[in-house]
Amino acid sequence: MASHKQRMLAGDSYLADDAELVADRRRCRLLCEQLNSTSVTEPYAREEILRALLGVIGDETEIVSPFQCDYGYQVSVGARSFINFGAVILDSAPVQIGDDVQIGPGVQLVTPLHPLDPGDRRTRIEWARPIVIGDGVWLAAGAIICPGVTIGAGSVIGAGSIVTADMPERHLCFGNPCRPIRPV
């Protein structure tokens, strides 16, 4: 039988408080603490921590503290991307961030899903869906990207938008729920 970590990585339901997953989240939190306590005058230390924390980090990418994620190893960030203060990435499923992406302060990328029934939630079983942020996307301040969403290359997601469905390439999109407004 597959472990809960194997089930999570395969996109199946898993037990969130499984000991192996708890240990992985603890490792991630320790690395986030180290990252968030380093100074901007220590760029090499920050880069070393980010390389240990994330699955992939592209050249010339900058992540500003504070930064938080759940596992780290499921996060891929392309080259020349920028992630501003207060970003939160819950990466129970893969989170792919393309090249030349701009992520504003307080943005959340959230992959886990939970049962709607309170009794089922008590089981601590959850599942997750991947998030894909295309090349050249700008996620403005406070945007929330929900599980399973793909943002098409070159699009702009307005501040405070809650993105519950895929957004097309090269469009200005905003609202709650977020929707495409016009091409850019």
Main traits of this protein?
20 strands, 184 residues, five-stranded parallel β-sheet, globular, alpha/beta
N→C terminal distance? 49 Å
Main sheet summary: 7 strands, mixed
Question: How large is the radius of gyration?
Answer: 16 Å
Number of strands: 20
Question: What number of domains?
Answer: 1
CATH architectural designation? 3 Solenoid
Category from helices, strands and their pairing: alpha/beta
What general form does the structure show?
A: globular
Find the CATH topology.
UDP N-Acetylglucosamine Acyltransferase, domain 1
Number of helices: 4
N-to-C SSE series? HEHHEEEEEEEEEEHEEEEEEEEE
Superfamily (CATH H level) name:
Hexapeptide repeat proteins
Helix content: 10-25%
Unreliable sequence segments: none
Beta-strand percent range: 25-35%
